[in-house]
Amino acid sequence: MEKQNGAIGQNWFGDITFHPGGVVRPMTEQEIVDIVKDKANYPSPIRGAGSNHSVTGCLVSEPGTAVDMRGMNRILRIGPDTVVAQAGALYIDVAKELEKHGLQFYVHIELGNLSIGAASCSQTKDASFPGEFGTVSSYAIGMKAVLASGEIIEVTEEQPELLQAMRSSYGLLGIIFEVTFRVKPLQALAFHHEEFTLDEFERQLPALIARGESIMYYLYPFHDRVTVEFRRYVDRGQPAHSFSWKVRNYAWATLVPACARAISATFPPDKLRSGLLAMLASSARLTLRFLRSEGSYPADQMIRYPHPRGYARYTFSLWAFPRENFTQSLREYFAFCREWERLHHYRGDLPNVGYLMNQDQSSLLSFTYNCTTMTIDPASSTFSPAWTGFLDACNEFCVARGASPLFNQTPRLTPGQVQKAFGDRIGKFREFMNQYDPEQRLLNRHFAELFGITPVDPNKILL
Q1: pTM for the model
Q2: pLDDT by residue (tens digit) across 148-204?
Q3: Are 446 and 406 in contact (CB under 8 A)?
Q4: Backbone torsion region of residue 218, taken as left when φ is above 0, otherwise alpha when ψ lies between -120 and 50, otherwise beta
Q5: Cβ neighbour number for residue 389 with a 10 Å cutoff
Q6: pLDDT value at position 3?
Q7: At what angle do helices 256-266 and 271-289 cross, to 10 degrees?
Q8: How far apart are CA 401 and CA 376, in angstroms?
Q9: What is the DSSP letter of 122?
């Protein structure tokens, strides 16, 4: 087991930096037990971490201990409908191994660097397929974790309420070191793109949903356009690797954010910069029209991002709106973005994206707990006062329309916004916290503030 004192912690994008008392990389579950029990050498808060991709402070362990789970990265067992892996294994690596056995995950996200541990206890997502869930953790059916007491616990479907809480626990109920995911037989995935004006999208959305396909979309507030990515499984034997996924992933992860960053860094916020960003968005829209496949590997849509991120890095946010009034909220959001630029001379330099998500109560703090939702995910290649100001206004805009956030993907939340979005479920989750971590060994400042928790020892979480 390795320990680094005086280390600096940083998230993927680089806008969150913190100074834990130490960073430790365990290789076994017993080493995690030893860490949790040794309060003198491993101070609170203790936060388990994988790839540190979060855009919020959910992983910040200052002034305590960061537990780097990447040393525990083995795939342990693959069965006919399950896979068991250690928490530090990467989602994309497990997906590729499943392919060799003719199997696949239910949910294939763009972020291939997601660790299995984070996948099991956060709300990372992709668009739902009919009859399925879009949240990765909804298919986590077993977890082994070290509790704040040092006890090892195994949670299965035989404990439905505890499993529901664990799936959205963000490491607050225990440090997860092993996860069992439900998987299914490998199928070929077809996808294509269609572009709509905002009026067309609003008018045709019920019919688009009735097609019975997974729906992900790109939003262009300054063009009044929506490009929809339709995905469906097809019965055509062995899948093939698709060049279109490679083009789409390169544009998403590298080309578009690098170009947007160059434009934003070179030109002041004036008509020229807005015009260049509009040209970049138009180029992206045009490219998407030609990207399609009739039978690709589902995992090909996943991206293995480099770490640390370079010039092409970007950050983002997410809000999930009730499906029943989404088109009205979307129309108002487009107007909100244009008005924000008029008043503050700022526009997001990357396309917004979004996902159609089926109602899902598999997790206690699910953002789609009450109804089917459709998300709006603004993104930016730069982190600046203009971006943070936009986020603050955007958060108020979204919560006023009944939208729900994610604790790891929606930055700059306030306790009031959290309470309005989740209501009594926050209190219910706090009951689990009181039961499994009464001394707040795993609680950091981010969650203490958002959940309205009075710390047992304020000095331990810097409140």
Answers
A1: 0.95
A2: 999 999 999 999 999 999 999 999 999 999 999 999 999 999 999 999 999 999 999
A3: no
A4: beta
A5: 14
A6: 66
A7: 170
A8: 12
A9: S
